[in-house]
Amino acid sequence: MKNLPEEKLMKKIGSAQFFMLRYETEFTPCTGITAVTKQERRNFKRGIMIAPWCPKLKRDKPQDDPLASGKVRLTDWTFKVNGRPCRVLVSTDEFAPILFLAIDGRFEGIETPYDVPLPSLREDTLWFGLAVDELLKVAASPQQFVWAADWETVPAMVLARGRHHVSLTLHNTFDECLVNETKPFGKVFSIFGTERKDDGIKTALEIGLELADVVTTVNRGFAYGMRNEAIQSKVMAPHLQALMDRVVGINNAAFTKMDSSLLALNQHLIEEPEAARQELFKAQAEARLLLPAEISSKCGNKVIVISMGRRVAQKLHDVMVESTRQLLRKDKNLPLFVVFTTVHGDSGSPARLERMQALAREFPDNVACLDGRLPFFSEMMHAADYNCMPSLYEPHGGAFEGTVIPIARAVDGLAEQICGYQPKGEAEKMNALWHPANEAPAGVLFREGGKTTAGRVKDLAALLSESPSPNNKLFKEMTTALSEVLLQAVELRVKQPEKYAELVLAAIEKQEGSSWEVNLGGMLALIEEARLKRKIY
What we know:
Number of helices: 21
Mean pLDDT: 95
Distance between the termini: 26 Å
Low-confidence stretches: none
Helix content: 40-55%
CATH architecture of the largest domain: 3-Layer(aba) Sandwich
CATH topology of the largest domain: Rossmann fold
C-alpha cells in the first residue's frame, strides 16, 4: 500500500481494541489531562492514541523536543484532508502508541495545544475530526471502538459513529458551539447546526452526550458534582443538565507508580508504628536539606504546605494566599512554611502570581513563591507535610502522592478520594456522602457553608472569570474555612505526630488500592452493553 507506515505499526493498529482521541498528550502537554493520558498509554496496552501534532509548541529546553530526542518520529504515511496534506507521526516508546496528525497550517498553538484564537481552535477541532475520519477509514475495523474525550474530539467522534461504537469521557465541562465554523466544510458537519427545542444552537458537548454510546467522567465525585454543584449546574454547564443522567463516573487511578520504598514504609507503619514514624520524619528532614538554600534555611522544623498547579481560576490559589496571610498576621510565630510552586495558566496568571509574590514579600520567613516547573520536585514532595488544593471544582485532582497529606476543598473528585480527618459543617456532609464511618481518614477537608442563592451564583461566576479572585462574600467564606483547617493541620503535625502518621498510612493505602485496570474494565463493560443496544455490523 502506498504512503503507509511500517508494517509493524499497521499490525499494531490492526490488533488494537480501541482508539483514544485526545487533544493533549505528554508530548503536547497542557492541563491535568496530560497526566491522565500518560497513564492511559502505560496501562491501556491495546489502545492506540490519536492526537493533533502542534509543530510550533514551545519547549522549555531543546532536549524537551520529542522530535529532536527521537521520542516521536515522522512516518511515510500521508493523506489529504479537505485538500490539505496530513502527515502521521508516531511515538517510539514501548507504551500504547500515539499517532499524531500534522495538517499544514493547523494546530499552531505555541504555549499549549489550545493556545490559538478561539475561532481557530474551533476550526482546528473540525480539521482534526476530518483527519481522524480519514485515518480510521484506512486503518480501523468496526470491531474497534472510538474513545473520545471532551468537546475538542466530538467532531471526530460524530464522524466515526456510523462505523464504530463510540464513547465520550469528560475531564471537564468546557464547551463550544461550532455552527459558524462548520460552514466552509459543507454538509459533513451539518449536525453542529442542530437547534435546541427551546432556543439557540446545540453545543459540541450537547451533541456528543446525545450521540455517544457511552458517556463517562473521571471520578464518581465529579459525576455527582456536575449535577449538584452550583458552579456546574448554574455557571459552567446549565445547558448540559438534561443530559447529565447519561454520565457514569469511573475513577481515575494514581498518576505515578507506587515506589517500593513507599510500600515498605506502609508495611512498617502497620507492624512497628513508632519506629516507622521516626523513619518517616527523618526522611522528611533529610529531604529538606536537599532543597535550595533559600528554602532549606527557612523551613527548619516548620510544617511545609505546598500549593501547586496551573495558575487558573479553577485552582483558587488566591484562597490559599489569603488564608495564609490571615494566619501569619494573627500569629507570626506559627510554625508554617508555605511553598507556592505554580506554572503559567491563562491570561489571568500574572495577577495571580503577583498575589503570591506579595505574600512572600510580606512573610519571607514563612512563604516561598516559585514560578515555573520545579527542578527539585521530588525533593520537595519528600520534604513536605501537606499539599493544599482549594479548588473551585476538581474533576479528579490526583489527591495523593507519596507521603504528602492532602488538604482540600470538599468538592467533586477531591471529596470522593479523600476521607477527611474530623471534618466539620459542609465538609462533614460531603465526607459522609462518599466515606463510611469506619474508613480511615487520609487527609483534611474544608468547605464553606451557605445555600445556593442568586448572590452566591454571581460570586461563583466572578471567582471563575476574574483574576485575581475578587474579595467577595463567598471568597471570604472560603478563606475563613481554609484558615481553620490549615491551623488544624499544623497543630496535628506538631502536637499529634502519631495521628499524622496514621493519615500517611491511609494515604499510602489509598494509592495502593487504586487501579487503571479497574478504570479500563469499567469502560469496556459499558461498551459491551452498548454493542447490544446499537448494532453497526
